[in-house]
Amino acid sequence: MTTTPLNIGNTAPDFELKTDAGNTVKLSDLRGKRVILYFYPQDDTPGCTTQACGFRDNYPQIEERNAVVLGVSPDGIESHQSFKTKFNLPFTLLVDEGHAVADAYGVWGERSLPLGQKYVGVIRSHFVIDEAGKIVDAHVKIKAAASVTEALKAIGL
Predict the structure, then answer these.
(1) For each of the chain's 157 residues, which pLDDT tens digit applies?
(2) Alpha carbon distance 88, 115 (integer Å)
């Protein structure tokens, strides 16, 4: 379990993950574009839906800024497909079942449920990566709506 998240100025760790469509995405293949890489705990839960729909609602403006959105959670392809269809998400969701990418970005760690129970999982976060692969914005342990607002600010919206 990684406990140190990445910081602004770090090179974003490269990865290759399966998409909601069953294809693969490699971060380094997106050089030349800005990437909003956001991590969320679980498909179709209230906070995760707020975060995803916030990016959905701003997606045309995000694309105008030469950026793409990639959502990452441990959920599988079928779960991602259902979530994406239900909320008409225009961007790619990535499958991180073994949480290797969440580990690499320092966002797999201890979390608390409302009644104080502890468990290990994805810590809601986002990273904005510039065209050269450098992290230009990083927020870990952020509220869903604030994640969208801060990521949009980082790309000039």
Answers:
(1) 445 668 899 999 999 999 999 999 999 999 999 999 999 999 999 999 999 999 999 999 999 999 999 999 999 999 999 999 999 999 999 999 999 999 999 999 888 777 878 878 899 999 999 999 999 999 999 999 999 999 999 999 8
(2) 32
| Active-site residue, selected from the candidate residues 30, 35, 37, 48 | 48
| Annotation says 48 is catalytic | yes
Residue 39 is inside which H or E element, if any? Answer: strand 34-39
Domains of the chain: 33-154 (3.40.30.10)
DSSP 123-140: PPEEEEE-TTSBEEEEEE
Q: Are 83 and 75 in contact (CB under 8 A)?
A: yes
